[in-house]
Write a structure and sequence with these properties.
mainly alpha, 17 helices
């Protein structure tokens, strides 16, 4: 088990939110979310008390019951109360769900001039499901991997809106010679959205492993060779970040994942993509899957690449 506190300290390395310009209106989590996260970490706190916390927030209550009763979870008898829902999900799964819903709500409250919010959350959900599938292959925590990938870019709508004049100079491209978004941010601001997101997540007292997922999500396939993180949810999150998105943050990401198949016999990009598309529909979260992943992967496998891809440095030992 990694020492997540030590890894988090190293990941942030003294970075703070003071680096972010004052004009950026950082989101705040609903009080019920913050209190639930803090109290749910104490194993002695009964579920009944946690249920009362959520019941003070009608939005969270509705989203929780909607999720528990979705066809994705396959419950035979309808759940009608928060305590019953928490009992079914368990404390850890409930905490992860509350974090995800609370953060999504906080971010959606901020408009973005550069990001289509529906497409943004669609990309994130696709990555989250992909990450969970990878975590299962790595035999690590699939739920932390899911949440880490769902939230890896959560600050981008806020940053791109409040720093619009800066971000509009970034031109997304699939050209491997084009500057990546994180490189653009480092050159322009001296920090990138992964660092800013990790710092805010730490301030919100989110789990250390989740902070690390956000901080290291641009590590690429190289993270698989890391002795501490190579078989952790952080690695699953980093691989999910290679999937296409609005900003083309990882040029030729799908090609790198396809190349990974030759190093990792248990991994099949098309098989994982098929599982992602199937689960995306069945989760019933109301986010339309306009661009399924599997056809993209099949197209890549059929046409091949017109450009070379740098050799992978990482290898996965079975």
């Amino acid at each position: 088990m990694p020492d997540w506190e030590a890894i988090r300290n190293e990941a942030l390395a003294g970075a703070t939110l003071s680096q972010i310009p004052p004009k950026v209106q950082l989101p705040t989590l609903p009080y019920a979310v913050t209190l639930f996260v803090q109290r749910s970490r104490d194993a002695s706190v009964p579920l009944a008390e946690l249920a009362k916390i959520l019941e003070t927030d009608a939005g969270l209550t509705i989203q929780l019951l909607k999720y528990v009763n979705s066809t994705f979870l396959g419950i035979q008898k309808r759940v009608v109360g928060v305590l019953q829902a928490l009992t079914f999900l368990g404390c850890q799964h409930s905490r992860q769900f509350v974090i995800a819903i609370g953060m999504e709500g906080a971010i959606r409250a901020h408009n973005s001039k550069l990001i289509n919010q529906n497409a943004f959350w669609s990309d994130n959900l696709r990555r989250a499901i992909f990450s969970r599938e990878i975590a299962l292959l790595l035999e690590t925590d699939p739920e932390i991997a899911f949440l880490g990938s769902l939230l890896q870019d959560y600050l981008l709508p806020v940053l791109t809106n409040d720093l619009f004049d800066d971000y509009r100079e970034f031109t997304p491209s699939q050209d491997v010679t084009t500057q990546a978004l994180s490189e653009f941010e480092q050159a322009r601001f001296g920090w990138d959205h992964s660092m800013a997101g990790a710092c805010l997540a730490y301030d919100w007292k989110l789990p250390d492993e989740l902070v690390c997922c956000i901080r290291y999500h641009h590590s690429g396939v190289e993270i698989l060779s890391d002795a501490r993180l190579g078989r952790s949810p952080v690695a699953a999150t980093a691989l999910s970040a290679l999937l296409p998105d609005q900003f083309c943050q990882h040029q030729r990401g799908l090609e790198l994942l396809m190349k990974l198949e030759s190093r990792w016999p248990n991994f099949s990009l098309e098989r994982v993509a098929e599982a992602v598309d199937r689960q995306y529909v069945h989760m019933g979260l109301g986010i339309q899957n306009d661009v399924p992943l599997l056809p993209r992967c099949k197209s890549l496998g059929t046409t091949g690449s017109t450009r070379s891809v740098e050799p992978l440095e990482a290898a996965v030992s079975e």
